[in-house]
Amino acid sequence: MNFTPQQVSYWNRAAAEKVFSHPLQFDPFSRWVARDSRILDYGCGYGRICAELRQRHYPDLVGVDLSAAMIRKGRSLHPDLDLRHISSANLPFADHSFDACLLFAVLNCIPADAEQTALLAELHRLLRPGGILYLSDYPLQNDERNLERYAGQQKKYGRYGIFEVDGGRAVMRHHDRPWLDQLLHAFEPLWETQIDISTMNGNPARALQIMARKQPSAE
């Protein structure tokens, strides 16, 4: 999976404009992820979650993002963090390199089934057996604004829940639960919650957070 020029351009602009708000729920995270764990934040943006984990005494952190502008901003804000620009979803790390992977508000930026499936396969490869995946993303919303754009763009994109934002500069996706369960079929569910948040454009929304474990016997 490679990133399109449109995706890269949008998120480079967003580095100066957008504020991300999906919170890390520390109590369940610390229950399953030890302080000496090696942690990957995939789609780290400007390093917000990595910085929080560093403050909470998790020293071994790597953040990656497709946006060079996000990474530059992150390095400026948090020069002590290991934040890396990537040009492909396939990462230059060996199998089983990480004890935990974070995937915060990333799937909603990837509308296609095949690309989401490829990303989850890559994170599965990178996690050691027994490693933890912490996903935070958007389920289908039930407010009038979202229902209208789901219905209005279903024919164009062939999937309910896909829609355009910022005048068509980007395509986003909210998810039905059966699809998320299919994506996570290789992981054992451990914990989940739904919370109220604000989107990067300042709109109220519900977020679904799931923590799951790669099967210890998985290869």
Q: Please provide the ordered H/E string of secondary-structure elements.
A: HHEHEHEEHEHEEHEE
- From the N-terminal CA to the C-terminal CA, the straight-line distance is 22 Å
- Please work out how many helical segments DSSP would assign: 7
Strand content: 25-35%
- What is the spatial order of strands in the main beta sheet? 3-2-1-4-5-9-8
Helix content: 25-40%
Plain-language structure description:
- The protein has 219 residues and is of the alpha/beta class.
- A 7-stranded mixed sheet has the order 3-2-1-4-5-9-8. The protein has a two-stranded antiparallel sheet with strand order 6-7.
- Strand 6 and strand 7 form a beta hairpin.
- The radius of gyration is 17 Å and the shape is globular.
- The two termini are 22 Å apart.
- The relative contact order is 0.17.
- The model has no long low-confidence stretch (mean pLDDT 94).
Short descriptors:
219 residues, alpha/beta, 7-stranded mixed beta sheet, two-stranded antiparallel ribbon, 7 helices, 9 strands
Write the layout of secondary structure elements.
Blueprint: H1 5-17, H2 26-32, E1 39-42, H3 48-55, E2 61-65, H4 68-77, E3 83-85, E4 98-104, H5 113-126, E5 127-137, H6 144-157, E6 162-165, E7 170-173, H7 177-183, E8 187-198, E9 204-214
Parallel strand pairs: 1-2, 1-4, 2-3, 4-5
Antiparallel strand pairs: 5-9, 6-7, 8-9
Summarize the structure.
The chain is 33% helix and 28% strand. It has 219 residues and is α/β, with parallel strands linked by helices.
